[in-house]
Amino acid sequence: MGMLYLLSAGSSARKIGPRIAVEKDGEIIGRLPIRSVDGVILGRNAQISTQVIFELLELSIPVIYIDEHGKIIGNLCNEKQTAARLLRQIEIFGNVDRQISLTQEIITEKIFNQYNLLKQYTKTKDADKLANKIKRLKTQVEKVNSLSDIEEIRGVEGMASKIYFSAFPDLIDLTRWNWKGRSQHPATDPVNALLNYGYAFLEREVRIVIAAVNLDARIGFFHSNDGRKDALVFDLMELFRQPVIDRFVLNILNRRMIAPDDFDKTKEDCRLKFEAQKVWCTRYEEYMAKKYREYGDKNTRDVIFERIKSFAECLKR
After folding, report:
1. Is the model's pLDDT at 62 over the cut of 90?
2. N- or C-end of the chain: fewer Cβ atoms within 10 A?
3. Helix-helix angle 274-289:300-314, to 10 degrees
4. Nearest 5°: phi and psi at 48?
5. Of 274, 58, 306, 69, which is closest to residue 187 (Cα–Cα)?
6. What is the DSSP letter of 293?
7. Peptide bond preceding 186: is omega within 30 degrees of 0, i.e. cis?
8. What does the DSSP 8-state code read for residue 295?
9. How big is the chain by its Cα radius of gyration, in Å?
């Protein structure tokens, strides 16, 4: 089934027998078995009954609350983390040698993902313009494995991202989309707004799997464990930014599924309009459920789950 989105004002969900009844302004617009739902995404102005929440928690199906930017405000999930597992996670991530080894692994994979995405576009875009950036990314990969200091690895990761995003003008239609470089918070243009929106969705995907494999989202190894954000979520997101979200965003832009007037722009930020958010959610769920030959006929959610599960199993060694 995938995720159930309740985002618009007047939308709600209540329990009728073993099913969730989805309503809009008091009228039932759909019914679906509770067990068929992977999770519920709830917007600020939507409603969900206590009975549905209880049933979801009993089945370990998460309820995630998001704001109008798609950013996670909070979540309800029946996590089954044990004290022994938490202590083991702290022990591993507190070991400097293991911390560096894991960081090298994650950042190497991230830069390879950047390299591979640009390489794929040489088939449809100007290969000569992309060639130099692809070559420079390969050099950054080689640097990562020669370093033994986290801050130095962070510097290489930052440089690789700068090289990678400098290729975006060669990947999108600049007559439609303004791109002056990566701007995160706030986004200053539609392309950055879509990337930020997508990464918020990716955060949700990763959080769900981290809970499913009984890891603690707060304790990471690359991002700071300072309590301001759940470090492990952002550590593991690095594995999927390019092959999942950037790939999808570029597809959305180049296939004109989203138009420049689908955004609200102010001096402070740029955000996707509500009607366009519904288009995004529909396309996103189709994309996440589609099986790809390159993934061994698995869908993207399966790949995220298996990669994080593999990571969790490595921690037991």
Report:
1. no
2. C
3. 70
4. -140, 135
5. 69
6. G
7. yes
8. G
9. 20
Residue located via tokens 């470090």: 231
- Residue 141: in which H helix or E strand, if any? helix 127-144
C-alpha 71/C-alpha 203 separation (Å) is 9
This prediction's pTM: 0.86
Q: What share of the chain is helix, strand, coil (3-state, %, to 5)?
A: 55, 15, 30
Ramachandran class of 145: left when φ > 0, alpha when ψ lies in -120 to 50, beta otherwise: alpha
How far apart CA 197 and CA 202 sit, in angstroms, is: 9
CB atoms within 10 A of CB 107: 25
- Nearest-angstrom CA–CA distance, 13 and 7: 11
Give yes or no for a contact between 304 and 206, defined as CB atoms under 8 angstroms apart.
Answer: yes
Asked if residues 67 and 30 have their Cβ atoms less than 8 Å apart, the reply is no
Q: How many residues does the chain have?
A: 317
Q: Which run of H or of E encompasses 112? A: helix 96-121
Phi and psi at residue 93, to the nearest 5°: -75, -15
Q: Which amino acid would we find at residue 275?
A: E
| Candidate ranges 85-94, 108-117, 146-155; pick with highest mean pLDDT | 108-117
Cα 239 to Cα 103: distance, rounded to the nearest angstrom: 11
Helix (H, G, I), strand (E, B) or coil at 153: helix
* CB distance 88 to 315 below 8 Å: yes
DSSP states along 21-68: EEEETTEEEEEEEGGG-SEEEE-TT-EE-HHHHHHHHHTT--EEEE-T
* The two three-digit tokens of residue 87, written as one number: 């202590």
Strands 63-66 and 47-48 turn out to be unpaired
Average confidence (pLDDT) over 170-185 = 89
Cα–Cα distance, 89 to 235 (Å, whole number): 14
